[in-house]
Design brief:
Length: about 190
């Protein structure tokens, strides 16, 4: 499964990952918040950044559709968004994302998530996309709500994050026929 070469999203450009993104990825992985809430264990090492990027450069047909999130004006890396766990038989997928600290609080994560999900609904036979995050990470809940997801419930001790502890998570979902979010404001 391959994402489109580029996916414009207002002030953002979702684009394929490039080998030249390594320095920016490694820099982003120095952020304690990114490491704390990542689904993939990140130790901040350059080797881990290389492995993380290599997975995104060689997607093959793994039911995984990753994009680099870049500033549409200057091309600077602002984050990552991916549809993953794509199940074509069930018509489901999950979305995951992160942003660099300088990109937070501006509504960019919600815009990137929305763009990836819209693409998924249009290009794949999926009608449901889930977003799951730790209860202790309320910023991800704000992103989910802004990106048009509906809170469906709490998953008790459902995922082990970087601290080695299984955390409760909140499950959000967006259906293909849900109203699209209004992302015209930053609030």
């Amino acid at each position: 499964m391959r994402a489109p070469d580029e996916l414009p999203a207002g002030p953002l450009l979702l684009r394929p990952w490039r080998a030249g993104d390594l320095d920016a990825v490694w820099s982003a992985m120095q952020d304690p918040a990114l490491r704390a809430w990542s689904a993939t264990p990140l130790d901040g090492s350059r080797a881990t950044a290389e492995e993380w990027l290599a997975r995104r450069l060689d997607v093959g047909d793994r039911r995984f559709v990753p994009w680099a999130v870049a500033d549409a004006a200057d091309g600077g890396l602002l984050g990552s968004v991916a549809l993953h766990s794509v199940d074509l038989e069930q018509g489901d997928a999950e979305v995951g994302y992160w942003t660099v600290p300088a990109a937070r609080g501006r509504g960019l994560a919600a815009r990137a998530v929305d763009a990836a999900v819209r693409w998924g609904f249009a290009a794949l036979p999926v009608d449901r996309v889930e977003l799951v995050h730790a209860v202790d990470n309320p910023a991800s809940g704000r992103v989910a709500a802004k990106a048009g997801f509906t809170l469906e419930g709490r998953l008790r001790r459902s995922f082990r994050y970087a601290d080695g502890v299984k955390h409760d998570e909140l499950l959000w979902a967006r259906l293909a026929d849900d109203a699209a979010p209004d992302l015209s404001t930053r609030s």
